[in-house]
Design a protein that fits this description.
Elements lengths: L1 E5 L20 E2 L2 E2 H9 L5 E2 L20 E5 L2 E2 L2 H9 L4 E5 L2 E7 L1 H10 L8 E4 L4 E2 L5 H17 L15 E2 L4 E3 L4 E2 L4 E3 L5 E3 L4 E2 L4 E3 L2 E3 L4 E2 L4 E2 L3 E3 L4 E2 L2 E3 L2 E4 L2 E2 L4 E3 L2 E4 L2 E2 L4 E2 L10 E3 L6 E3 L7 E3 L4 E2 L4 E2 L3 E3 L4 E2 L8 E2 L3 E4 L2 E4 L2 H13 L7 H12 L2
Parallel strand pairs: 1-4, 1-5, 7-9, 11-14, 12-15, 13-16, 14-17, 15-18, 16-19, 17-20, 18-21, 19-22, 20-23, 21-24, 22-25, 23-26, 24-27, 27-32, 28-33, 29-34, 32-35, 33-36, 35-37, 36-38
Antiparallel strand pairs: 2-3, 5-8, 6-10, 7-8, 30-31, 38-39
């Protein structure tokens, strides 16, 4: 049986992060949403519906006309109860949670048609109500669920703690039964791992430089680096090939992003290829201690988050200069440069050059030149398809 991810209208709430990726590529916990489902369903093959401008940058896959397809709403996360409901699902049925279709099993012919038309249609399917599904409604739900998903992903991946591996346990590891260290990990002297209240996960090929303190739940992704004397607090995921230092609390870094220097990042989400200059600070708490409102990326309406702590959401390839101050609940788009000497505005559009004289459009050719230089440093090619994706985002800003 094939697997195909589809989106509903609420996926628009996850812009600007989803301007450059499908919803299933968002990271929460150790894994991306797609990786969670592939592991949970033990199926390495998948397909997805994609906006045309993301084709070539991301794999769309195939839906053949000879097998039924399990369609999965990409805002949903696997759980034991949900997997049980999926197992019982019959062809021609859909699972519905609070009026939203979360999954459907569709015959081969209809699935092939929907895939070719790049549009999911659940009309005519029999409805089965489900009472509970772990789901994402807003960007900040990624932060709310991150610690929980870290623990789930450890079980899903079958990771063994260092106490189970029967290796010598350093004195600086507190609660080794809750500490997970992968292969070819380099840990320099003076590091402290505190896993009393949540797991510490260090993935293959990661480096923890001298004097760093990590308090779980924390994930350091494959090939990532925690810089010298960093303080990484609970609820943080540092994605693959990131470099992160200074003080970080309750954040998600997707991959290839850098916060290599001192400065505070709290309750924030960063996409790929982000670079935070030295002493960049994200405000994550209002002076009056009231809940934080954010601006909807599309409608520009204010949304009540119900959260007292929320920092910055910054999409791919955006950068800050040294000593940048990011406002509480700031939403920053794709490929923007922020180098002001005052608190940032709450919304920074994609391809914005934001300096002391106010915002200007970041020239597309110059932005691509900088992207190419940064990606080349990590031996990643900036392809023609990637340029076309960025051109679409630029012209649609």
């Amino acid at each position: 049986m094939g697997i195909c991810f589809f989106n509903d209208d609420q996926v628009k709430r996850f812009q600007p992060l989803t301007l450059t990726r499908p919803m299933d590529d968002l990271r929460v916990g150790v894994l991306t949403i797609r990786e969670k489902w592939i592991k949970s369903l033990e199926n390495s093959e998948f397909s997805r519906l994609l906006p045309d401008y993301l084709n070539g940058v991301f794999e769309k896959g195939k839906v053949e006309g000879n097998e039924e397809v399990l369609w999965l709403n990409s805002r949903m996360l696997p759980s034991q109860s949900f997997l049980g409901a999926l197992k019982a699902l019959q062809e021609g049925q859909k699972l519905v949670f609070k009026g939203v279709t979360v999954a459907a099993k569709v015959n081969a012919k209809s699935s092939a048609k929907m895939f070719s038309e790049n549009s999911f249609n659940d009309a005519g399917l029999d409805t089965i109500e489900v009472k509970e599904v772990i789901h994402l409604d807003h960007l900040w739900d990624l932060l709310s669920l991150n610690s929980y998903e870290i623990e789930k992903d450890i079980q899903l991946l079958g990771l063994k703690s260092i106490s189970e591996q029967k290796e010598e346990i350093p004195e600086s590891v507190y609660h080794p039964k809750n500490t997970f260290i992968g292969k070819d990990v380099h840990i320099e002297p003076g590091c402290i791992f505190i896993a009393e209240k949540g797991p510490v996960v260090i993935c293959d090929g990661a480096t923890i430089e001298a004097g760093s303190i990590l308090r779980g739940p924390v994930v350091v992704g494959e090939g990532a680096t925690v810089k010298m004397a960093a303080r990484i607090y609970d609820g943080t995921t540092i994605g693959p090939v990131c470099k992160v230092g200074g003080e970080v609390a309750g954040c998600i870094f997707h991959s290839y992003s850098n916060k290599a220097h001192d400065g505070f990042a709290g309750n924030s989400i960063f996409g790929q290829w982000v670079n935070l200059g030295a002493n960049t600070i994200t405000s994550n708490l209002k002076n009056d201690y009231k809940n934080i409102d954010v601006t909807d990326w599309i409608t520009k309406d204010l949304i009540q988050t119900g959260r007292q702590f929320l920092g910055t959401v910054m999409a791919d390839h955006s950068k800050t200069a040294i000593n940048t101050m990011l406002n509480t609940g700031t939403i920053c788009g794709v490929s923007s440069n922020v180098f002001i000497d005052e608190l940032s505005p709450k919304v920074i559009d994609s391809f914005t050059w934001l300096g002391p004289r106010g915002p200007a459009i970041y020239r597309f050719e110059k932005a691509i030149e900088v992207m190419q230089a940064m990606m080349k440093r990590r031996d990643v090619e900036l392809t023609d398809d990637y340029k076309r994706m960025m051109k679409h985002i630029f012209t649609s800003r």
